[in-house]
Design goal:
Layout lengths: L1 H6 L8 H11 L9 H9 L6 H16 L1 H14 L3 H11 L3
Helix pairs in contact: 3-4, 4-5, 4-6, 5-6
Length: 98
């Protein structure tokens, strides 16, 4: 699926269904993956309505591969993308872990 996603046109990569499919398929391997391509794709395509959930799922992987500073930077980026106070509060809870 990752190969298919990477081969998609730029506009297709923003299709919410395709992005959700990528996240749902990756969820199984996230606890143990060291696949930097997968992590890169997920970092670039967090779901707008699930920023905190995606951040919480991906943060341990980023920490494992790149270190805690990369995780903090990633979560700060998500905070900037947050749409409302509720999302910011949820992301803030994730940030407290790191």
């Amino acid at each position: 699926l990752l190969d298919f996603f990477e081969a998609a046109e730029a506009g297709e990569k923003t299709d919410p269904l395709l992005v959700d499919l990528l996240w749902q398929s990756a969820r199984v391997v996230l606890p143990t993956t060291k696949d930097e391509r997968l992590v890169y794709a997920l970092r670039r395509h967090c779901r707008k309505l699930l920023l905190a959930e995606d951040g919480d799922d991906l943060a341990p992987v980023i920490t494992r591969i790149y270190g805690v500073e990369a995780t903090r930077s990633f979560l700060a980026t998500l905070m900037e993308k947050a749409r409302d106070d509720n999302q910011k509060q949820q992301i803030g809870k994730v940030q407290q872990k790191y």
